[in-house]
What does this fold into?
Amino acid sequence: MQDHGSREQSLSDEDTREQEDSSTPLQNFWHVRAACLSIAFIVLSFWGTSTLRTADAAATPDLLVILGSLLCFHVVGTVTIIAVLLNCVPAGRRLSELNMDKGYSIPTLLQSLKYSAFIIPAVLAINVAVLILFRYMQWPIQDDPIIEWLSQARVEVVVPLVIGAVVIAPVAEELMFRLVLYESIAGQAGQGIAIGLTSLLFALSHLQPTHVMPLFVLAIVLQYARNRSRNIWLPISIHAFFNGFMVAVTLLFQPN
It folds into this structure.
């Protein structure tokens, strides 16, 4: 009778442990993997931006440079991120843990438009203020390689860049910075440090000194949107609208 009671207690303890394991937060699955993946993503981002910066914008064959350093990098990065996510999170909790269970809907689209109506003017105003400061302090201002490529207005150059900036980059960067890296750091250091650090890394990864502060503010808003909605599609959509607006402005107001 006592043995039967002890066996029941043992089974009860095992069930309790399984329930505790099933309720473990996302970040407890992958601190090391997320850190390694984040470092690789950021290094590749530096390499891709540097490649675009040094490429010959007047040479049509350099389209291969664009495809290799931007599109392929983001596609491979996105696939790798999703593979790590699916490997680390139990099958029964994947969609909810990845904040993808809500899907992309009309309310998400409307929310992203509201956020974009606020953040785009704010980021542009900050960027102007930073440029004024740089000119006043006589600090060097680097040309944006993406803008240089877009300013050519050649279809074979513009199309892959638009796809990369408006579709691929928002998905890859939001999964990386707002989900994988944020959850990993938040699980160890808290949400405040995670928001600040991931936003700074996001801004620095673009290798543009005058864009650090504007992109830092943008990243904070994107993280806030994801945390508040628990829907990763919201920051992806806001990011896509922001990039799309910047691309449209570049194409419409380029010097002739």
About this structure: Confidence is low (pLDDT under 50) at residues 11-27. DSSP finds ten helices and no strands in the chain. Residues 2-252 form one domain.
